[in-house]
């Protein structure tokens, strides 16, 4: 048997992990936790204000403020102790409710729900889709028009003839100069337009080239995302087909997904090892629990004013033994329930289950699997049990399980309660 969490299991585990952590009980605890944090922060700020006031106060006021500061400090420390107790009670509620947490959860996994459509981000270079603006240049100035001097009239025709001729000649010279200036301006404008046109054409070529490159890169990424989604969906379809035929690999992958969905408390992590025997339709399953000393053993936290410390009192040995044994028994029933309920095709007809931990064997001094529960359960018989109303230990005894008398003390049992196929 091997520990496994493959492609499908990791996907489903992450999805279910997020969903289960949003359950009503969790939200209620989170509200209480936030309230405790706020109270602790409020007390801390009150203490800080009292210290600042004390530092600024006159000698006459300091005695009064010192008392207020001490009271604020005591309040803060009590708030921190209350917060620790709230966290502790939540941990114990999770451990004590391991079986209840799964009874109202449908453990069946709809494999189609694991399918996905590729999610494509928008094209990231929309700026390249906008053509480069054409530069706006001044228009050519109007062409100069020759206006000859007015013809003299009257006696001027007789006495100003030479003067008029000179004026006409001067006007013609000026017109030729104006024409030359105009032509140079037109030529300069034409040169500027040609340069601007070349610049614009070059910028457009660069833009179109960059746009083509960006679209090509986007197309490659688009195709890659589509391929990944298609491959994933094809793998899911193949898994469904193989599972319908009871193929060993498909059954084990599906059970991996189911057990990965089983979210245990952070303070009580659980792992699974299993293998499926198609000839007998039996699942050989091992559940690995945390060692007893890894489970919280504090009864309560308390602020001690005389030493100005938050101290803890330990649970009694009996309370620790009872809680750990209860968690062992609940985990065994929870695991059987989750596998049988999830297997709607009834491919698995029976489960040979071992529950224990890996620890140093007190007798051998080596790391061993310490078995606390060994039980074989038939599907039809187990599904008749109303788990919401049972005492876990009594149910396991009813199933003929071999049970450790003291799991907390690492007292083990043999494998007589399971079939070793």
Task: Give a nutshell description of this structure.
By secondary structure, the chain is an alpha+beta fold. It contains 10 helices and 8 strands.
Ordered list of secondary-structure elements with their pairings:
Blueprint: E1 2-3, H1 7-20, H2 24-56, H3 59-96, H4 100-103, H5 156-159, H6 161-244, H7 248-261, E2 271-277, E3 282-289, E4 298-304, E5 309-314, H8 317-342, E6 350-360, E7 367-378, H9 379-382, H10 392-398, E8 402-403
Parallel strand pairs: 3-6
Antiparallel strand pairs: 1-2, 2-3, 4-5, 6-7, 7-8
Helix pairs in contact: 1-7, 2-3, 6-7, 8-10
Which terms summarize this structure?
alpha+beta, six-stranded mixed beta sheet
Kindly describe this structure.
- By secondary structure, this protein is of the alpha+beta class.
- It folds into 2 domains: 2-107 and 262-409, no CATH class; 126-236.
- It is built from 10 helices and 8 strands.
- The protein has helices at residues 7-20, 24-56, 59-96, 100-103, 156-159, 161-244, 248-261, 317-342, 379-382, 392-398; strands at 2-3, 271-277, 282-289, 298-304, 309-314, 350-360, 367-378, 402-403.
- The strands form 2 sheets. Strands 1-2-3-6-7-8 form a 6-stranded mixed β-sheet.
- The radius of gyration is 43 Å and the shape is elongated.
- The relative contact order is 0.11.
């Amino acid at each position: 048997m091997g520990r496994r969490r493959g492609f499908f299991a990791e996907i489903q585990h992450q999805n279910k992990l997020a969903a289960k952590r949003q359950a009503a009980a969790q939200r209620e605890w989170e509200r209480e936790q936030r309230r405790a944090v706020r109270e602790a922060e409020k007390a801390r700020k009150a203490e800080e204000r009292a210290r600042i006031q004390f530092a600024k106060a006159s000698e006459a006021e300091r005695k009064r403020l010192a008392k207020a500061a001490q009271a604020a400090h005591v309040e803060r420390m009590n708030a921190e102790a209350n917060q620790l107790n709230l966290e502790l009670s939540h941990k114990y509620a999770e451990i004590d409710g391991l079986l209840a947490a799964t009874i109202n959860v449908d453990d069946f996994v709809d494999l189609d729900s694991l399918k996905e459509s590729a999610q494509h981000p928008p094209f990231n270079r929309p700026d390249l889709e906008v053509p480069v603006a054409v530069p706006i240049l001044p228009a050519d100035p109007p062409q100069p028009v020759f206006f000859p001097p007015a013809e003299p009239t009257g006696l001027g025709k007789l006495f100003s003839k030479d003067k008029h001729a000179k004026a006409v000649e001067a006007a013609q010279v000026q017109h030729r100069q104006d024409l030359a200036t105009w032509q140079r301006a037109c030529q300069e404008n034409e040169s500027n337009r040609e340069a601007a046109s070349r610049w614009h054409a070059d910028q457009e070529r660069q833009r179109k080239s960059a746009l083509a490159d960006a679209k090509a890169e986007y197309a490659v990424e688009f195709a890659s995302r589509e391929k990944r989604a298609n491959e994933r969906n094809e793998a899911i379809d193949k898994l469904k087909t193989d599972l319908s035929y009871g193929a060993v690999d498909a059954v084990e992958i599906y059970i991996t997904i189911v057990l990965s969905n089983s979210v245990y408390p952070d303070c009580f992590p659980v792992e699974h090892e299993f293998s499926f025997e198609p000839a007998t339709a039996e699942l050989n399953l091992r559940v690995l629990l945390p060692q007893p000393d890894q489970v919280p053993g504090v009864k309560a936290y308390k602020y001690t004013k005389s030493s100005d410390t938050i101290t803890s009192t330990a649970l009694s040995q009996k309370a620790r033994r009872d809680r750990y044994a209860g968690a062992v028994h609940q985990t065994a029933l929870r695991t059987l329930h989750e596998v049988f309920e999830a297997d709607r095709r009834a491919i698995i007809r029976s489960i040979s289950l071992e529950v224990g931990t890996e620890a140093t064997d007190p007798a051998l001094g080596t790391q061993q699997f310490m078995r606390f529960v060994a039980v074989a359960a038939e599907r039809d018989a187990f599904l008749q049990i109303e788990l919401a109303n049972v005492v876990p230990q009594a149910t396991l005894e009813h199933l003929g399980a071999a049970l450790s008398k003291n799991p907390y003390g690492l007292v083990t049992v043999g494998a007589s309660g399971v079939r070793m196929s």
